[in-house]
Amino acid sequence: MARRILITGGRGNLARQLVPLLEPSGDHLVLVDVTDPVDDPALASCTQVKADLADAVGLERVLDECRPDAVVHLAALLSGRSEQDRLLAWQVNVGATVSLLEAAVQRGIGPFVMASTVASFGGALPDPVPEDHPQWPEGIYGVSKVTAERLGHYYRHVHGVDFRVVRLPLVISPFANRGAASAYASLAFIESVATGRFVSQVNPTTTVAAAYSLDAVRSIEMLLAAPRDRLSRTVYQVQAISPSMQQIVEAVEARVEGVNVTFEPEPRICALVESWPKHVVDASARRDWSWAPKYDLDAMADHMIQELRCAADA
After folding, report:
1. Is 303 a member of any domain?
2. Can you tell me whether residue 149 is helix, strand or coil?
3. Do residues 86 and 116 share a domain?
4. Quick one: 151 and 185 in the same domain?
5. How far apart are the two ends of the chain, measured CA to CA in Å?
6. Which of 105, 262, 276, 278 is most exposed by smallest CB count within 10 Å?
7. 91 and 227 belong to one structural domain
8. In terms of domains, do 73 and 94 share one?
9. Could you tell me the pTM of the whole model?
């Protein structure tokens, strides 16, 4: 039987790449975002709704109209913007999550899949970072995500919500949000293809656990589809690659002729990004729902640059 799946952040980086994976199931996808609906053929089969999930009245209206059976919660104020407006970050990343979780209790919604982040870690970290390592993030974005994870754990174990989290690594994407500190790796590709030059705000040696966006959204789709009785935990980590910034630059230079790349590290961004894990343990995801990435650095670079060039020619 087809379900109605509510996807928050529905016109964002991850959602627009998740939709093609979910469409073949026959489920009806409702994309909710604070931005205006877009005329995009790739989203033609979806219902697009404009709403601010931090507004309780607006959220109730959306839930009444959409009557979702499941939720994929991707909406978030990302790292750079969160540092600029900490209160708004809390309202969006925590307040909206609580409201959705409470709705899941009252309306019997589930599964409820949320995207979290390795930015929820910080400080001196082991390499690789275990699944249950203490989380002491360096930024408000990470703090809000830790809080959301703990809230979901509470709603799962006390109120029975089928809450599931995929703790994503740094996501490298052709649609990266420039307001995120994590966009540094994506921008190496985006700016190089668009302008033939790129200025890196992180060091050549900066290395963070990462995944191509197509692997990231596939992990979300896999966790959403996993039978509940196969899940041994609430929060799952995934990873695909761990390239240094120098390796990313070399991958770009090998594919974009004549590109000019320079390094001008910005101390604040470096401090934040370098507090994130270089590698994470994802053994539970591999065991419970057969997680395995498809893209290494070369495959990602080939595909992403092709996508960027096709978009530029369109």
Report:
1. yes
2. helix
3. yes
4. no
5. 38
6. 262
7. yes
8. yes
9. 0.94
Interhelix angle 245-253/184-195, rounded to 10 degrees, is 20
Helix (H) or strand (E) holding 59: helix 56-66
Based on the domain organization, do 230 and 202 belong to the same domain? Answer: no
CB-based burial, 185-218: b 16+ in 10 Å, e otherwise:
bbbbbbbbbeeeebebbbebebbbbbbbbbbbbb
Domain count, the chain: 2
Q: Do residues 168 and 238 make contact, with C-beta atoms less than 8 angstroms apart?
A: yes
Residue given tokens 């703090």 in the structure block: 143
Q: What is the pLDDT of residues 45-97, one digit of tens each?
A: 899 999 998 888 889 999 999 999 999 999 998 878 888 899 999 999 999 99
Q: How many CB atoms lie within 10 A of CB 124?
A: 6
CB 161 within 8 A of CB 102: no
User: What does the pLDDT look like over 179-221, one tens digit per residue?
Assistant: 677 899 999 999 999 999 999 999 999 999 999 999 999 999 9
Which residue spans within the chain are E strands per DSSP? Answer: 4-8, 28-33, 47-50, 70-73, 112-117, 163-168, 170-172, 197-200, 210-212, 235-237, 260-263
Q: Does residue 36 form part of some domain?
A: yes
Residue 266, Cβ neighbours under 10 Å: how many?
Answer: 15
Note whether 184 and 44 are same-domain residues: no
